[in-house]
Amino acid sequence: MCALVLGLGSAAQAAQVNNATASGTTGTAGSSSKPYPSALTATYTLAGGTNVQIIANNVPLSTLGGAAATMFSPNVPTTTTGIQLQTVGASCNFANNAAATVTCPDIGSTLTISFSRPVTNPVVHFLGLGSVRSITGDTVTITAGRTTHTLSASAPAGATLSTLPGAVNLQPLTNAPLNSTLDIANATYNGTNCTNIAAPATQLAGCGSVRVNGTVTSVTFTVGMSGARNVFNATIGNALGDDGYMVTATVDEDFGDAPASYDSVEAASHIVDGLRLGASIDADNTNVFNDTPAVTPSPNAVAAGADNNGSNGDGSDEDGLTTPLPTLHTGLIGQTYSLAPTLSGGTAAGNVCGWIDFNRNGVFETAEGVCNAVANGATSTTLNWTVPIATTAGRSYVRLRATQGAQLSPATPTGRVDSGEVEDYMIEIKPVIRVIKQLNPTGATGRFDLGIGGTAFAVNQGHNGTTGFRTLYHNSASGAPDLTVAQNIATTAITTAVVEVPNAATTALYTATYTCVNGAGAAVATGTGTSVNITLPVSVTGAAANGRAQAVTCTFTNRLNTSALSIVKSDSATTYTPGGPATYTLTACNAAGADAANGATIADTLPAGATLSAPWQCVGSGGASCSAGSGGAAGGSTISLSATALPAGGCLNITVPVTFSSNPANY
Q: Which phi-psi region, left, alpha or beta, contains residue 329 (left: φ > 0; alpha: ψ -120 to 50)?
């Protein structure tokens, strides 16, 4: 009995055993097909002769050979159904009565195992290779025969054989691209059982696993026989006895590594077939068979909220995308977000699909999926999502699936498919704030630095200047945010200051107002000034996601002031006496209804021959205030101050005491 199982020979793998059903024919030209849960089909076909026949096409491995699951790699349960075959011993004869051994590498038949999709690194499990016979009552004569299999072809060409751990009395005799022969390791009187030796046999039968290295759609074995005997017995004659064995097939799988909630019913899995997202792939989950019920969750699932990128989670074969992924933020709601996975190894047209858990509810939903058809040999594709309203900031996950054929759609984020690869990635949806600068008139020369949270993200901005959306987040696991904050928005609201600061070159006076709206267009702050505190609310997961409230745009509008300034200089004298004193006043006012002229400067220089007799004095009225209550000193000749505040209707009143020189030459 023999079992053929296909699987990736890495240290970590998963396999699908075929379903307990089969269709086809028996006999020397038999052809039997067995399906898998993923819809892959393996077909076993005999051709070329009458010396090998299919006896049954759906019997358990326990039917022959006494095998144990541990003899196979992976450990195929002996309840698995397979194909039972039998060779005709009379097709291989000893050359003469004295011959002790016989080898017939080709008894005229071939066994081809073909797959409806390519499979990578198939593993052949042989079960029950060997037979022994003697005449009743004869304890001396032993004739032992066994079936051999030579790898004579593969599609595509180039496959080789390797024996895997656990095999009993089994080995490939060569390891060339062709003519690799699988035979018994110790061929001296091997029996029919892989577990127990029963006289007159002295060796176990052959059972175990042999990997066919390569990605193939079929492998063909030329069936032969070999045998040994200790003495000639005329009753037995020169012919070997018949040898019965079995064949079945399993295939390796790849799983994702998103948290368990994403695969709550049936984990996403792909039969490893050569098609890859990126350049590498592995097979997962040693000796766990993905049949009924389906494996769930993924054997690689990380803890909820864990980072599965890079060397975390499933490891380095997650290379269809480069991490960190392109920034996904709440300001993109209603807009397009794109990922461009690379592909390799495809041999047929297929589909690439992706899902993003925008609402962070722990489920990849149909509405969160997009798919592209890809041509045979495609090396990349670009998946485009319209970011939905039900998006909220915080840690989430992305799933990519690629397959040959048409098994994938937006409705299949989970489940088994017969080719390709699945890759999962952590992504952090970040909240954003944007600042926009408006000037009135638009041609005004004022320039301003726009800042968020103490950082100037845009400097020297005029009309329509902007910071663009700037991300705020508490860590850099999925790419550094523009502004690192202490709060994790998944649990704590984020409050930060939004400001504008006039550039040093800006000397004109402006009135600043601000309006802040969220992504839904709702106002969250309005007022007059150059600074405002904005709060981004805590995330709410699920259908009521609040991502639009976590995207705020603040617009500062700076209107050039239209102040109406006037200054009057007066005193009550009509004549001046050299060497005598005088007092005059400066009255600087802003007309009612005008814009404030805060910061306006007042300066006056006394005429020749006149000097200050004491400091000048300043008093404000109508809400105006002076930068200094007094200034200058006796002997000085200048008056200089500014209006700390000069609202409409306000005035600054400066009293200036002077004295006139008694020397006419000073005039």
A: beta
Can you tell me the distance from the alpha carbon of 161 to that of 158, in angstroms, rounded to the nearest whole number?
A: 10
Distances in Å between the Cα of 649 and the Cα atoms of 96, 487, 643 are 132, 47, 13
Total length of the chain = 667
How far is residue 93 from each of residues 24, 87, 241, 253, measured CA to CA in Å? 32, 13, 10, 44
Whose tokens are 């306006």? That residue is 600
* Spatial separation of the C-alpha atoms in residues 292 and 282, rounded to whole Å: 23
Compute CA distances 287 → 15, 19, 30, 284, whole Å. 7, 17, 31, 9
Question: 10-residue block means of pLDDT along the chain (667 residues)?
Answer: 32 69 95 95 96 96 92 90 94 91 95 95 89 80 91 93 89 69 89 91 91 92 94 88 91 94 95 94 76 89 93 84 97 98 96 98 98 97 98 98 96 97 97 98 96 97 98 96 98 98 88 96 97 98 92 96 90 82 94 89 93 96 96 95 94 95 87
Per-residue 3-state assignment (H helix, E strand, C coil) for 241-309: CCEEEEECCEEEEEECCCCHHHHCCCCCEEECCCCEECCCCCCCCCCCECCCCCCCCCCCCCCCCCCCC
Starting from the edge strand earliest in sequence, which strands make up the sheet with 250-255, in order? 15-17, 250-255, 269-271, 416-417
DSSP letter string, 369-387: EEEEEE-TT--B--EEEE-
The helix (H) or strand (E) run that includes residue 565 is: strand 565-570
Distance CA 174, CA 401 (A): 38
